[in-house]
Amino acid sequence: MSEIELDERGILIACPTCGQRNRLAYRQLDRTVRCGHCKTRLDLPTAPIDINSEPRFDQFVDASAVPILVDFWASWCGPCKMMAPELEKVAGRSAGKFVVAKANTEQLPGIASRSNISAIPTLALFAGGREISRVSGARPASGIEEFVRGVLRH
């Protein structure tokens, strides 16, 4: 089991203090959550979350109380590989404001098709259960953050 996963109701993370697995419910991602075992405060993930299935993608997007920035990518894509460390930086600096997720278009072709992804990398911002904006092409962390700030300001 990886350190961060999605299930039907939330994000599963390990407590940084005691290691206990906890669920951050999608509908409560905007609230303070504490570890069920040691009561340590649990923050939103500071790394991109790999979306592992179409149902999980739908549940995450439909129920999340915070915006989700999804990187649509593929393993063979050079610009996608170049952008991966930039997304790590963004995820580390965005915790609490929005969540960064990654959707591999080769493993999840149905999501890519439904989302009309015609170029990769494509960043799509979801809020309130729907896509609110997107941008294609590789960019540095500052450009990614500028994109998100510009959309969320409106």
Order of helices and strands: EEEEEEHEHEHEEH
The outline comes out as: globular
Largest sheet: 5 strands, mixed
Strand content: 25-35%
Q: Overview of this structure, please?
A:
- The chain is α+β, with helices and mostly antiparallel strands and 154 residues long.
- The protein has a single domain, classed as Glutaredoxin.
- Helix content is 30%, strand content 29%.
- The protein has helices at 54-63, 78-94, 109-114, 141-153, and strands spanning 4-6, 10-14, 21-25, 33-34, 41-42, 49-50, 68-73, 99-104, 122-127, 130-136.
- The strands form 3 sheets. Strands 6-8-7-9-10 form a 5-stranded mixed β-sheet.
- Strand 1 and strand 2 (10-14) form a beta hairpin.
State the gist of this model.
With 154 residues, this protein is α+β, with helices and mostly antiparallel strands. It contains four helices and ten strands.
